[in-house]
Design brief:
Blueprint lengths: L4 H16 L1 H14 L9 E5 L5 H8 L6 E7 L8 E16 L3 E10 L25
Length: 137
């Protein structure tokens, strides 16, 4: 009898859920992610050679810093899935490589942008500072 890996992992997750609670819920998401045969594509890095850029492009690329958000757009060959991909990404690291053969190459290491709830001071929906409301308690 052949049992798929997905069934085995689901059974293990179910058995451990009572004993470990939230920890298992987080790990189950990770386990299910690893089982996905077609994960969403994402960019993890981007590199470019300064010599191939125009002066205006060099000025734009030169001021990108860690923590900045950039948008990467890529079109793929016809009849592919996806045909194009655009992602807003956060810069997590920068590497510069300068040598005689290749010139100046910059690599940006990226991660998905995670937007958490914003903190808005004196917001009429979420409370006004120094007033009797849910924010002050």
């Amino acid at each position: 009898m052949e049992v798929s890996m997905s069934v085995v992992i689901q059974a293990l997750i179910g058995a451990a859920a009572g004993a470990f609670g939230a920890y298992v819920a987080i790990r189950s998401d990770l386990a299910l992610y690893l089982l996905d045969p077609n994960p969403e594509p994402r960019f993890t890095s981007l590199n470019t050679a300064f010599a191939m850029l125009s002066s205006a492009q060099r000025d734009t690329v030169a001021v990108i810093d860690i923590g900045d958000t950039i948008t990467i757009e890529k079109s793929f060959a016809p009849n592919t899935n996806p045909a194009s991909l655009a992602q807003s990404l956060s810069i997590e690291g920068i590497e510069h490589s300068i040598n005689v053969n290749n010139g100046h190459i910059v690599t940006y290491y990226t991660s998905p942008v995670i937007v958490l709830n914003e903190l808005i001071l004196d917001d009429p929906s979420f409370g006004i500072i120094n007033a009797d409301n849910a924010v002050q308690g």
